[in-house]
Amino acid sequence: MRITQHIHYTLQNRRAQLLLPAVLLLPLFVLVIYLLVEVTKVSIAKVRHQFALDNAAYTQMTTVSVFLNATALLNGPLPYRVLKTYDEKLIPVDKDDSSRWYRGKDNWTVFDLFFQAGAVPTLSPDYDKEARHNPAPKQESVDWGVHYAKYPGMESQEDEDGNPAYDRSEWEKENPAPIKDRIWLMNKEMVDKHYVAAKKVGLPAIMAYLNTYVQVGDTFNLQKDLYQKLIKNAGMFREGYFLNVDDCKKNECARQSASRLVQYLSIPTKRQEAAKVMVFVSASDMAGGTGGAVKVPLEMSEVGAEPLFLFAYVDGTGRSHLKSLKRGITLKQNFPLPRNHFNVDLVTKYKPYVRDTVILNCPRANNNCVWPNPLPKYNVILRP
User: Fold this and answer.
1) In terms of CB atoms within 10 Å, which end of the chain has fewer, N or C?
2) What is the residue range of 19's domain?
3) Does 183 share its domain with 314?
4) Which residues, 6+ apart, have CB-to-CB distance to 112 below 8 Å?
5) Contacts from 27-30 at CB under 8 Å and sequence distance 24+?
6) pLDDT of residue 20
7) Are residues 228 and 90 in the same domain?
8) What is the pLDDT of residues 243-295, one digit of tens each?
């Protein structure tokens, strides 16, 4: 009787009315906590792999943009700025010369010997032939206008083989024909009409020019070798991915997305180079000289150098890759999930993955800012 009364009293107690629901709901609370823990683990795994994919893709594609921007700089802006420092004035032999292109040009510099021979490109706006000044492009400029000199009457001049001596129009193409004939590096008519002494600006200027472009060519070769090592098998991509996750082996990490990206990392480039060149010295400076330019043919192999580098351009395969990279390459990477308390195989059931789209872009419709008219403004963009 007492037990029955005690139970009846307990059930009527308000505090006791909370105990029964609590006991019934306790398993549900535990289940919710387990679910939150498992969802958090899945979210952490996804965030970690998404970061790894983004970081690896950006880092690997940056190696491509750095190489292309470096090549664009070597293709004109860098040697132009170096050679522009050759500002020694030339002394006219006859200031009364009245030839069409030369008229009034009594303040040519050593730089003009090479610039007007198409041996070095200039930047836009056009090199000021009177003031000898060419301002640097503005920071926001998307067209530096790099091009070779074009002076009236000069395109009609021919070398000893009857080839155009200074016409570089065939060079300013996406796919220029290889140079087979000897090219002129100095303006013959300008040497005819000026004192270009060997002890002043003649041979020293020639050697300085050759040395500048030999070093530019060597720099291009080093950049290309390093670039090819960094993109081999998308090694930097896979290494970057591996370092940001802890659930894959180094030799297997990011294999799925790497196999997709590696197809577009190689942007083949070719050197436009000349094995034989022609320079001139002024006979007016020689003892008993009567004026005129003296030919000095040079074989690059004879001076212990490889063919003279002039610029580098992207071949057809590379241009196709650049167009694809401008549209963007979508990378998808499946990733594993940690085991859960419910023993459910989420990987087999849902096949979780992360993805992003990596873009290599420059301000040209065809995405070729290497040559012609190089513009070192490639940048990398990531999109989800």
Assistant:
1) N
2) 2-35
3) yes
4) 90, 187, 190
5) none
6) 61
7) yes
8) 999 998 888 899 999 999 999 999 999 999 999 999 998 877 665 556 678 88
* CB 81 within 8 Å of CB 120: no
Residues 154 and 9 in one domain: no
Residue located via tokens 């009567």: 290
**Judgement on whether residues 62 and 186 belong to the same structural domain of the protein:** yes
**Pair 213, 311: CB distance under 8 Å:** no
State whether 369 and 245 are in the same domain. yes
Q: How far apart are CA 202 and CA 219, in angstroms?
A: 26
Q: Are residues 131 and 199 in the same domain?
A: yes
Task: Please state the rounded mean pLDDT for residues 216-241.
Answer: 96
Q: Number of folded domains in the chain?
A: 2
Other Cβ atoms closer than 10 A to 52:
23
- At residue 212, what is the residue type? T
Mean pLDDT to the nearest integer, 362-384: 96
Say if strands 276-282 and 329-334 run parallel, antiparallel, or are unpaired.
unpaired
Q: Are residues 153 and 25 in the same domain?
A: no
Farthest-apart Cα atoms in the chain, separation: 145
Model pTM?
Answer: 0.87
Question: Which residue reads 């960094």 in tokens?
Answer: 230
Tokens standing for 172? 């300013």
Q: Which residues pair with 194 in a beta bridge?
A: 92
CA angle 61, 335, 258 (to 5 degrees): 30
Alpha carbon of 44 to those of 144, 339, 351, 355, 365: distances in Å?
Answer: 47, 13, 16, 16, 40
If one counts every other C-beta atom within 10 angstroms of the C-beta of residue 20, the result is 10
Q: Say how many C-beta atoms besides its own lie within 10 A of residue 30's C-beta.
A: 10
For the chain, the residue count is: 384
- Evaluate whether 116 touches 149 at the Cβ level (below 8 Å): yes
Q: Answer for the pair 183, 276: CB distance below 8 angstroms, yes or no.
A: yes
The span from the CA of 162 to the CA of 181, in Å, is 11
Taking Cα atoms as reference points, which of 54, 73, 55, 62 lies closest to residue 325?
A: 62
Same domain, 228 and 352: yes
Q: Which two tokens stand for residue 127?
A: 């090199």
DSSP 260-325: HHHHHH---EEEEEESEEEEEEEGGGSTT--S-EEEEEEEGGGGT-PSEEEEEEE-HHHHHHHHHH
Contact 187, 151 (CB under 8 A): no
What CA–CA distance (Å, rounded) separates 219 from 128? 29
